[in-house]
Design brief:
single chain; 271 residues; alpha/beta; Cobalt-precorrin-4 Transmethylase, domain 1; Methyltransferase, Cobalt-precorrin-4 Transmethylase, Domain 2; 5-stranded parallel sheet; 5-stranded mixed sheet
Length: 271
Amino acid sequence: MLNLVSTPIGNLNDISLRAIDVIKNSDYLYAEDTRNVKKLLNFINVKIPCKSFHEHNEEKVTLDIVKQLNNGKMVSVVSDAGTPSISDPGYRLITKCISENIKYTLIPGPSSVISAMVMSGLPSNRFAFYGFVPRKLSDKREFFENLDTETKTSIFFESSKRILDTLKNIKDLLKPDRRISVCKEMTKIHENITRGTVSEIIRFMEENQSNIKGEMVIVIEGKIKKAAIPVINSRIRKEFLAKLSASDSAKLISLITGENKREVYKKLIQS
């Protein structure tokens, strides 16, 4: 049996009783960074050998885990923080288990994506998760161009070393008045959520650079769709004029279409 175990994103007290029980009863435990997991194991007072499972050894370790599972062992995979396979190794392992009909389950728990979405104060009925910002310049440009047209609230990760450059890219490629939220140290003592427009947050970050530490979750409001402007053709304009004065017709058409009232009036008296 494979267990995908969610772990705290900051505050170790957020570990669930079920997660503790599953880890305690596992034959093998795998994690992206064994040093981080040792802190958690010490906190819950569980002694179990922990092996590395990261992007550089994912292919090989996936085969090792599948072999252990086929031998009837209980294997647990944990994330450094949050849920395994969400911007973490695990996707290949899950697809391998599906293809070989190996039973697996998820032990749910804290999520930095969901936490940031809720804490941002931005619309949460529809949102898209984009993972980490790409490093390559061409990929990065495409990444932000996608964000520019995204109508759903967007969420992605960025490191403190690159956060200012990323915010400036957002300002250049998206509208500077787009509302965003930058979340750091979530669930910890120094949890901080900065909300505002892109321009406001850049200014705040530049004034408080000593406090920019750790991994951050950025939430950006979706692009607001402009309402389609009704088209008032010449026939309809004539019908307005047949019942109303040019001035009243212009006022009413302006309210319906959003066109400038003076411009509408000029068109009416010229028609």
